[in-house]
Design goal:
With 142 residues, this protein is mainly α. The protein has 8 helices and no strands. Pfam families: FliG_C.
Length: 142
């Protein structure tokens, strides 16, 4: 049996815990290794995980982020995420995102910075219970 461990696997396990259990584990880790706790916290959710947001949660997120960041960030995202966002975004916001998405070439570092700015907001909203990333499609949030 092949060992599958590391930060990504640990982050997946943490993401599956309840909020209180996740906070306890991260708190314990941060007492021994604050950098590791931060790395795990950042790794629990990726930009492409936004495809698992419900349309209402996605709109709530879009109200909190800069459209310029979203347009840039989508340049290196999966087609599934692009489709999900464009399909569930109000027309005005969608047009702004499309202009940036299809605009002149940008440095990859700028695009990654835009993704990280969005993910900071996403993690805050998840921690507050305002967003839920549900990767298990058999369960529905209402």
């Amino acid at each position: 049996m092949k060992f599958q461990g590391g930060v990504k696997e640990a982050a997946k396990m943490l993401a599956g815990l309840s909020k209180s259990a996740r906070e306890k584990v991260l708190d314990l880790i941060s007492k021994k290794d604050p950098k590791m706790a931060e790395t795990l916290h950042k790794s629990m959710y990726t930009f492409d995980d936004l495809q698992y947001l419900t349309p209402m949660m996605l709109i709530e997120l879009l109200r909190s982020v800069k459209m310029s960041d979203m347009g840039l960030a989508l340049r290196i995202s999966s087609n599934e995420l692009k489709d999900h966002i464009m399909k569930n975004t109000p027309r005005g916001m969608r047009q702004e995102i499309e202009e940036l998405l299809l605009g002149p070439p940008q440095l990859a570092s700028k695009v990654e910075e835009a993704q990280e700015r969005i993910m900071v907001i996403v993690r805050e909203k998840i921690d507050k219970g305002q967003l839920i990333i549900n990767k298990d499609s058999s369960e529905t949030y209402v």
